[in-house]
Amino acid sequence: MGRVILALGLFVAFCCGLAARADVLRLRNGQSVEGKVERIEADKLVIQTKDGPKEFTREQVKSFSVQRPGPNGKLETVELQFKPKPVVMPFVEETEHYVIKTDVSEKAAKNAGKAMEQLYKVFTEIFRPENDKVDSKTEVVIFAKEEDFRRLAGLDATGAPKGQLGFFRAMPDGQTQIATYRREGDEFGTMNTLYHEATHQFLLLVMGGPKKAPPLWLNEGLAVYFENSRWENGVFKTGIIPNERLAVLQKALRAGLCVHLADLMKRGKDTYDALCYSESWSLIYFFIKSDGGAHAKRFAEYFKMLREGKDPDEAFKTCFTADLDKLERAWKKFVLEIKLPPKK
Question: pLDDT 10s digit of each residue in the chain, 344 long?
Fold first, then answer.
């Protein structure tokens, strides 16, 4: 699944004037370096250590965290990665909200641009953001080869995780980037990944920035809900049921192996497995399709409360229900009654 990555470019002032702090670099060889990051460039950074300044290339650095004053004035630690190098591709399609770059084909660039704008239109109709104007368009990169995608994603080191299909990242300067690669014989899969990551991008816009990110179950549930969008007879359709996810989920429900909703809503990335993604999707689907659409109308108020900084649990209770056990029973019944298509 896709992930949200905060990236950092040349931002010297960011690192100056902070006292009593310890920035930490984690190197790809397993070592860590503590000090104060003095300079960050596209290909290297310089950190002031107790033994003097030391320089590291981006190939040496696995990740790094820096400290900066938070809203309350206290220092807080922020995980960062290098800002990606500029992507140059032979085919570029610029739309109202996106800049599509690819080395697949001109047709692929145009098709992606058309689809992404259509999904953006759907987003605005559903979420009705107070302000959907952005200073810069989101860069969408579609690689022909997986290894090129992994290099951009920072996954080209020995032992890097396999299976990541795409990512969305937002930079401190406000720029955003979505990337994936073409899977041979699975054009739907390539576009579905873009739709998934575009959902993260739009939710960031709706919420007003990374510090107001929606709860993980909501973020990933909506991303899976919209990732299954596709064109059918010239019409762009969303909310298509992911049959494979549904089959696994129904089996888990019947076996009593699902995560309770109260637990699901508190889980972090480190424990968010494939079943959690399926459960989150099904809960979104339940809200949108059940109860005559009454639940769906409550999303606007829910997002409004989250944007205002309200506690996610309290916002959920206010907009939906405080009785999670009752909700869980209704949700399970709804999911188990969805009919899967017959196996071919």
Answer: 544 443 333 333 333 333 345 788 888 888 889 888 888 776 788 898 999 999 998 778 877 777 666 555 666 676 666 666 779 999 999 999 999 999 999 999 999 999 999 999 998 888 777 666 667 899 999 999 998 998 888 765 444 456 789 999 887 667 889 999 998 877 788 999 999 999 999 998 888 776 678 899 999 999 999 999 998 888 999 989 999 999 999 999 999 999 999 999 999 888 999 999 999 999 999 988 887 766 667 877 888 888 888 899 999 999 988 999 999 999 999 999 999 888 76
Please state whether 102 falls in left (phi above 0), alpha (psi between -120 and 50) or beta: beta
Q: Is residue 168 part of a domain?
A: yes
Shared-domain flag, residues 68 and 98: no
Q: Which pTM value belongs to this model?
A: 0.78
Token look-up 């009454």 returns 294
Does 158 lie in the same domain as 88? yes
In terms of Cα–Cα distance, which of 237, 236, 194, 201 is closest to 219? Answer: 201
The answer to the question of residue 218 being in a domain is: no
